[in-house]
Specification:
The protein has 432 residues and is an all-beta fold. Helices cover 0% and strands 50% of the residues.
Length: 432
């Protein structure tokens, strides 16, 4: 006979640190003896997942390899201590082959990050060995993990509103476990629509889908306005949004179905803020696009949308969006078709020490209700080091810059010295 003692240590994470909160010691006895009996075997089981308030039912088979009878086939684990409880029913015993049916319909209260452990045990009659204490029945164990996942928020809708997207979703089916509080929602966006569906055990946002987390909101919030951090979204893209719920222990729900939409182009769209010359009396060229006229977006046939029409170009120093008090120049026409000024060269600027931000407002018989987008020039800085210069630059624009080409003046013309997707570049091999 052999005795074993096992210490089970429990830890809790608090303020980022793991703290030991308890220890339980369990002991067991193992008897080693000669026997002819062969232990039964339980069919292999795979870990699985189930959405809260959905039913999980599967069968488990136990066979006695010694062609003897199985006299007990049981299941234990967390689902049998939950409310509602899991059930496990078996075919008639004793029998050489016994089939058990596991069934569980977990509620929202069972949603958590850690899976539930279920252990199945099959015990034979000990044959052909004589009855105990000479012969001892043998057993087989098979365990599996069941993760309970919260359902995704439903009915996500994206509605274009000027240069932003207004999102709403339905929280009526979102789980709110009593022991694992619902902490809120995570909101994701990307500039293309898709039809991806998560795997059965895939929670939250899969990293391979190309979405970016843009916001997290509280558990009682079911709407969000995405204005790209105040810069406005870029026109011409189809934006896709998805939302998932998250919980106190780090668990996440399934990700929602996508909501896809485009901006309505009823305001001017800035496309260029180009530094033409750098210096204390530099020059910046600004370009923009007119709103798209009827019948698509801006409807000139509506009485309130009649002329005269006007573009107001505004400018502010740095990256601060300009206010209406910073009017640079106006361009007007009695007819929409002849309002064709869509660029301006801004001269006499100190582009050597600061960036500049521009906005184009649009007016008809009444002021526009939608705020236009702001866009800044690119401003570069140099940090000297040993035989090198580290270049960094910044800009605040509503479009997506996906690549930067770096040029260096050779005394006559500009040479390309590199390409990067980051906003930094180091030019090496220089003479101090």
């Amino acid at each position: 006979e052999y005795n074993f003692a096992i210490d089970i240590v429990e830890w809790r994470k608090f303020m980022g640190n793991w703290i030991k909160i308890g220890t339980v010691r369990r002991d067991m006895q193992v008897t080693v003896c000669q026997c002819q009996n062969v232990a039964p075997t339980i069919s292999d089981l795979n870990d699985t997942c189930i959405q809260a308030n959905s039913n999980l039912t599967f069968t488990v088979t136990a066979i006695d390899a010694g062609n003897n009878d199985i006299q007990a086939f049981t299941a234990t684990g967390g689902p049998f201590n939950a409310s509602p409880q899991a059930t496990f029913t078996t075919s008639a015993m004793p029998s050489t082959t016994v089939t058990g049916t596991f069934s569980w319909t977990p509620s929202c209260n069972q949603v958590r990050k850690a899976p539930y452990l279920v252990t199945f045990k099959a015990t034979d009659d000990g044959a052909p060995d004589p009855p105990p204490p000479t012969g001892i029945p043998l057993s087989d164990y098979e365990s599996m993990l069941i993760t309970v996942i919260a359902p995704a928020p439903e009915n996500l809708v994206a509605s274009p509103n000027c240069t932003r997207m207004d999102l709403t979703w339905d929280a009526s089916g979102v789980c709110k476990p009593s022991a694992n509080p619902h902490m809120g929602y995570k909101i994701y966006r990307k500039a293309s629509c898709d039809t991806f569906s998560p795997g059965y055990c895939q929670t939250g946002m899969p990293s391979s889908w190309g979405y970016a987390l843009i916001a997290s909101v509280g558990p009682n919030v079911t709407s969000f306005s995405d204005d790209n951090g105040g810069l406005g979204l870029a026109s011409g893209y189809t934006y896709a949004y998805r939302v998932c719920a998250y919980y106190f222990d780090g668990a996440e729900s399934y990700i929602s179905a996508p909501a896809c939409a485009k901006l309505v182009r009823d305001v001017p769209i800035i496309t260029n803020v180009d530094v033409i010359s750098t210096g204390t009396s530099g020059q910046i060229n600004v370009k923009w696009l007119k709103p798209v006229a009827d019948p698509f977006n801006y409807d000139t046939t509506i009485a309130s949308n009649h002329g005269p029409y006007q573009f107001d170009l505004l400018r502010a120093k740095g990256y601060v969006p300009p206010s209406t008090l910073l009017l640079l120049q106006s361009f007007s026409s009695p007819y929409y078709a002849t309002l064709n000024t869509t660029s301006h060269s801004d001269i006499g600027l100190n582009t050597q020490t600061s960036a500049y931000t521009y906005r184009v407002d649009f007016y008809d018989t009444i002021p526009q209700s939608c705020p236009a987008q702001s866009a800044s020039s690119v401003f570069i800085s140099c940090i000297p080091n040993d035989n090198q210069l580290q270049l960094t630059w910044n800009e605040q624009v509503p479009w997506n810059n996906y690549r930067y080409d770096i040029y260096k003046f050779n005394g006559i013309s500009w040479d390309s010295i590199g390409t990067t997707t980051a906003q930094t570049f180091t030019d090496t091999g220089l003479v101090n």
